[in-house]
Amino acid sequence: MALLRGAGLSLKRLIGRSGAQLEKDYGDPAVTRIREAAEAADWAGVRDVLAARPESEDRSWLLWTVGDVAGVEEWIHRAVAAEPDSALPVLVAGARYVSWGWEARTGAWAKDVSREQFEVFHARLHRAEEFLYAAAEREPAWASPWHFLQVTGRGLQVGPVVARRRFEATVRRDPFHLRAHQQQLQQVCKKWGGSHEEMHAFARESVLKAPEGSLLGQLVAVAHIEHWLSLDSGPDEQYMRRSDVVASLREAAERSVLHPDFERGAGRVQVCNTFAMAFSLAGEAIMARRCFEATEGTVSEFPWYYVNGENPVAAYRHHRSTVGA
After folding, report:
1. Which class for 169: exposed (0-12), middle (13-18), buried (19 or more C-beta within 10 A)?
2. What is the pTM of this model?
C-alpha cells in the first residue's frame, strides 16, 4: 500500500510538471454563466449573476467579462430603459462602453493610432462615464463604478490628481480591491506619465498596508516586470537580477503568494503566475519553482503574453523548464 501511495504521488507530480493549460474564466463558474448570458443577449441572466455576487466580493471580474462581449452595446440600452431606477444595467452599459472604447483604440502605441480611432475611443469613453456616474449616484456604496472610472480616466487623460481621486474613491469602498490597485499602478508607471520610482513606491506601500496573504502582493512583481519591459535586452536581465529587486520580490511573495493565508478566488492564479515569471526572470530558481507549483499547472494570459503574445502557455512552459519545476 505504501509503495502504491508513493507511486501515486510521483505520478501526480509528473503530471503536474508536464501539464499546463490556460485558465478559463478565472476558474469561476459565475464568470462562465455571465459570459454565456451576455452572448445570448439575456439581460435577466446577466442581472441574476451580478445580483448573486455582492459588491464586497469584487464584481469587477464579472463586469469585465460582460464588457468584453461584442454586441452588448446593441441590447443593454433596452435594459437601462426597462429599469430606470436600477444601478445594474447602467453599470453594465458603462463596462461595455469602456471595453468597446479600448477596442476602437486597439493596443497599439499612441503614434500608431489614427485620429479617427482616437475620436471613437474618446466618444465611447465619455459615454461610459455618463453610465458609470449614474451607477455611482444610484448606489453610492458600490466600488465597481469608480473602478471603471479609473480606466476611463486613464484613456481620457484626466491627469494624476483626478486619477488619484478616482482610485481613492474605489478603495474607500473596498480597501484591498485588486483591480483598482492594478489600475493605479498603471497610472503611475512611466509609460503613462509617472515614473519607476513612483510605481515601485506605490506597489510596496500597498502591499505593506494590506493583510498578509493578500493578492496585492502581485503589485510588486508587476512593477518589476513593467520596469524590465522598459529596458533594452541585456540591461533588462541585469535589472531583474539585482539584489534589491530580488529582495523586494521575496518580501512581497512571502507576504502574499507564499503566505499560509494566501487568498483564494478570482485573481489567485494570475498572482501566482506573475511571481513565477518574475522569479524566473530574476534567476531565482527555488522561489520560482515554489510559485510555479502554486499555479498547479494553470496559466494566466497576464503576464505571459509579454513573453509570447500568441502562446502564453508556451512561455509558461519554457520558463518553468528553465528553473527545473
Report:
1. middle
2. 0.90
